[in-house]
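Whiteboard transcription, Tuesday session. T.W. wrote the structure tokens on the left side:
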């Protein structure tokens, strides 16, 4: 349940354009679906990538916003808060989102690499859904 709380808090912060804090919560959600957040950066993933196969479809109780391009998402959220939205405000917030996403992915990568270095007899923790990793291009056992 704590994992679900972190995911919900992360998505609430994501909606408020508080990307760094949102990704901090996502890091503590053991069953977080990386594919859900990657869908906001869809133009940067291979065209052959299937988000549904990687866990990108929303669960019934998933509090994630409807995915769209990050520029559109930021523009829409800013429009809800203020009458006039400048291009520079959109660009700045998208830059913050991109930086938070990169930082999140680097930390995820480091966690996976540390997990790979564990001795075989040590129980591995982390990705509760190894299929999601394989579907996104990582192969091997977890």
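and on the right, the sequence the group agreed on:
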């Amino acid at each position: 349940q704590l994992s679900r709380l972190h995911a919900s808090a992360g998505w609430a912060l994501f909606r408020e354009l508080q990307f760094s804090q949102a990704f901090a919560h996502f890091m503590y959600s053991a069953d977080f679906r990386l594919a859900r957040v990657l869908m906001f950066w869809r133009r940067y993933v291979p065209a052959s990538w299937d988000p549904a196969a990687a866990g990108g479809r929303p669960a019934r109780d998933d509090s994630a916003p409807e995915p769209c391009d990050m520029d559109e998402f930021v523009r829409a959220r800013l429009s809800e808060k203020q009458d006039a939205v400048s291009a520079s405000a959109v660009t700045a917030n998208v830059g913050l989102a991109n930086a938070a996403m990169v930082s999140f992915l680097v930390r995820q990568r480091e966690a996976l690499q540390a997990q790979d270095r564990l001795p075989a007899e040590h129980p591995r923790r982390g990705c509760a859904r190894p299929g999601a990793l394989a579907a996104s291009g990582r192969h091997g056992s977890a």
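Someone added at the bottom: The two ends are 23 Å apart (CA to CA).
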